[in-house]
Amino acid sequence: MIKACHYYYRDQLTMSQIGERLGVSRHRVGRLLRDAVDSGVVRIEIRSPYSSVSDRERMLEQALGLKAAIVVDVDADLGPEVVKRQTCESGAAFLREVIKPHNTIGIGWGTTTFELVQALEPLDLPHVTVLQITGGNKWLSVRFDCHEVTRRLAQKLGVEPVLLHAPGIVDRKETRDLLMNESSIRESFQRFNEIDIAIVGIGALVPAVHSTLISSGYVSKRDLDALMNSGAIGDVFSYFLDAQGELVRTELYDRLITIGIDQIRRIPTSVGVATGANKATAVVAAAKGGFVNTLVIDRELADAILAEQSLHVLSKEEATANGS
To answer: For residue 145, is pLDDT > 90?
Structure first.
């Protein structure tokens, strides 16, 4: 065991080379190295200037049951747009690592997804597919609309986009039903079952409205009032959620054209990107509801989420104590 550790950690030999020297198999070397760590013969210590960020990431993953959390150490005093841009730059670096050949990527619209795509360096991935997963927003600036964001991402990856030629919200349920029966739209929705990675922004309605879906004017005041009265606290994939991550089904729900809920929850890597402490409740709801399993957020938002989760745990413990 000691010889294997010296060869591996000090001499930087591969497990195959060590096996040849010791006259054992590569797998036997691997077991010796694992046993060395387990028994305390070898102690691995990671020293990093970003240890506090790493701690936040681990706590978020544990608290929210996430696949991964990326916390970006950005000074909140720089202003919300700078925080968003720097957070999205780190998000783009993360995407470069996770996007693989033959992946199918779904993307929504909004200012955050736009910044993320802008920050992504061009990649040569000709066999990747890029899908638009929510309908368009006629009130939104052209560059933030889902058609344009999808086009830009496809361009960065060197492929042609697969667009969803439909509005995100229609006036009547009957109109939605007719559009969903159109062959081109029906085929687009069938392809959503193939998505490996989804990229989406998260909007907040509390403690104040910070949602592109709302601020663009695409949701009427009447619809917004109905949502708020029904307990909506945020939105993701154009769906509105309550604080527990449950769908808020007002009349607006039946007029949405966006990826299906079951399809979202089957996506292996669903990346939610958000910045600002005011989105804490909405981000938690998106994770609880199974809409995102990976987060890319700034440090201030991470701290707000952890504080909210800590209070939630304390309140549950108090309720249990009082009940007993």
So the answer is: no
